[in-house]
Fold this sequence. Notes:
By secondary structure, the protein is of the alpha/beta class. It has 23 helices and 22 strands.
Amino acid sequence: MVTFMRPEILFPLFAPVSTLKGTGPKTAPLIARVAGPLVRDLVFTAPHSVIFRSPATAATAVEGEVQTFEVAIVQHLRPGKVGAPYKVRVSDPTGFMHLIYFKVFGDHLEKKLRVGSRWRVSGRVERFGAEVQIAHPDYLIPADSAEFPPSAEPVYPATAGLTSRQLQTVIHRALEKTPELPEWQDSAWLIQERLPSWREAVALLHAPETVEDVSPICAARRRLAYDELLAHQLALGRRKKARQAAPAPRLSPGPASSAMEAALPFRLTGAQQRALTDIRRDIAAGARMSRLLHGDVGSGKTVVAALAMADAASNGLQAALMAPTEILARQHFERLKPLWGAAGLDGVLLTGRDKGRARQQKLAWIADGSIAFIIGTHALFQESVEFRDLGLVVLDEQHRFGVAQRQQLQDKGRSVHVLALSATPIPRTLELTQFGDLEVSRLDEKPPGRKPVATRAIPGARIGEVVARLRTALESGAQAYWICPLVSESEASDLAAAEARWGNLTRALGDGVGLVHGRMSGPDKDAVMTDFAEGRIRLLVATTVVEVGVDVPNATIMVIEHAERFGLAQLHQLRGRVGRGAAESACILLYEGKLSEAASTRLDVLRRTEDGFEIAETDWALRGGGDLLGLKQSGFPDYRIADPVAHRDLLFAAAADARMILQKDPGFVTERGKALRVLTELYDWRPDRTDAPA
């Protein structure tokens, strides 16, 4: 793999912020908190808005506007009582105004703002009755000075002890140290897109003059966004090439594979067959596979994974499946055990609950290779777990595991193939940004026989009707979920709390109402979910912890309270918990008040379609990405300028450009290649780093 040394031209940008003038030991940590620890981080900290300061007089002052005045100091008015403000009366030829100061001693103001002196004053105009006033002016500049308050001023993130204007001052000092860098973009493309050079774009980023200048579509931001997206796509591409260069065992279907497939009580869908073909092509190629298999709840990912695991066993290797929760791991184990038996093989379940002699026996079986299939939770990558010859790792709901955790499990074999599963359909944009170094297979068909879930949106005022219908359904033997967004009442929120709703529903429906939420311990949560799965609980009141959970075919009703507050993909995932058996199923979306346009669109889409891929794309567009898969945990790139929604066209162009670059100039030896080395080091997304995007 090609490795680069940081070019000397970037040294000023990778200097600590503490090297900048006026940045001492107190302010440096505050700057690092808001922007980052390096000069480069300041350069890439974009203003989020802009303040416009228009010239005005006392007579033309507009309440709520930020305006600039030239005034004379008339009088100092000390507060007559505790808590009252200090006032400075000022005037211009058109009238009088007051400068208002709270919790400020007046002595230094009297010395600074002497009666009769003239000042340029700028701040937000307020009216108190007929009186025009400015509280704590932003600027006070002597009228005979050559300095003027800026007509347009960028607004940056702030934190306690560090104002936007203080950060702006430090950013300007960072810009002074920012060098011209060699051009890594195609000049013809820059002309065609009317984009500036990198150094010019950085300067424009921090000097907005209009509202458009702080929007994602302005030329400066598009230029810098493309740079960022290209750097990331190159990092992912180099990571993929490094993986593909690592030899791995060649696996092919064998007797265990055939026996397991013959034991299936159904035929694979076309999508499952295509995905299995993709996987088998990868694992037979002699290089490490890293493939993502994603699709809706119930689309059959586990079966495809099980057949790939059988291929490993047919070649004398072990296969491990890691699930995020114990109950999900146990569910996989119980479902797959009969298939393994049909193939004449055995498996073991390893979780954190295994203790003492039973645990030691399982570890011995895994270590001596007498067990071909291992299913477990995080317990699988503990140091005490040693495999005889691990050939394939399957990560269920892979985004729930950090990069380092996944690497720990892969490191337990010589060169392990990896298959990642996700029950959330992933938008194309997200495939590129999050999984650009993986091959991707989509399961876009559902197994035959899956009935659609009738979906209705009902005002929260009709909750009594919903409870009455629910009582009838439960009495007939059905089971149901009731989803609430919160765990306990909060003064800051009017959302119904799961604990309170559980109490209300228990009083209304009697025994058999369970409660599960994220604050419960793992064993307690699993115990409740097991009681529900085995029918001892009829109605499960829950927070969104059931979004990825047990399969309960008898559960036919899903009630989601305050549905307008959930993301579209999350609503779809929750709805996927029902409709898994032969009976008709329903999803009831309870909403409060008048729906916003976005909330109305979400609920309309959910009523109209069960296509998870269409829903995921719509949700991505509506929410501007959001945290669709818990991505912060999984190493999703923390873009500074790029917006994968607003810059979607640039993302696809950057992905294509990166592929072409790595095909034609993998060593980065051409003139453009040498400049691209600077780009990749500027963003420092090195594929050999353990914290690089997964």
